[in-house]
Design goal:
This protein has three helices and no strands. It is mainly α.
């Protein structure tokens, strides 16, 4: 029997605080250069940090720290592939 993958639900526009998310992302990037030794990191780390920041901006409790990052990646992957399978071009 094939198991159906549960696609995570992200917040609806009415429930999502865009202003708070943008404010968080602005602070996140404005303080990024304060991290020790950041100039020696590669593009993989930069990409992971960008994805992490988006996750925390969406849900600071659910997606923070290492476990939260992995959960966000998993949720994002399910959402992207669910939409690809439905032939949607949006996330």
């Amino acid at each position: 029997m094939k198991t159906k993958t549960k696609v995570p639900k992200f917040q609806k526009a009415d429930d999502f605080d865009m202003e708070a998310a943008v404010k968080y992302m602005q602070h996140y990037w404005n303080t990024y250069d304060k991290q020790t030794d950041y100039k020696n990191w590669g593009e993989d780390m930069f990409l992971r940090d960008a994805i992490y920041g988006v996750g925390v901006a969406l849900d600071g409790e659910k997606y923070k720290w290492a476990n939260g990052f992995e959960q966000f990646i998993d949720d994002l992957r399910k959402r992207i592939f669910a939409n690809v399978l439905k032939d949607k071009r949006t996330l």
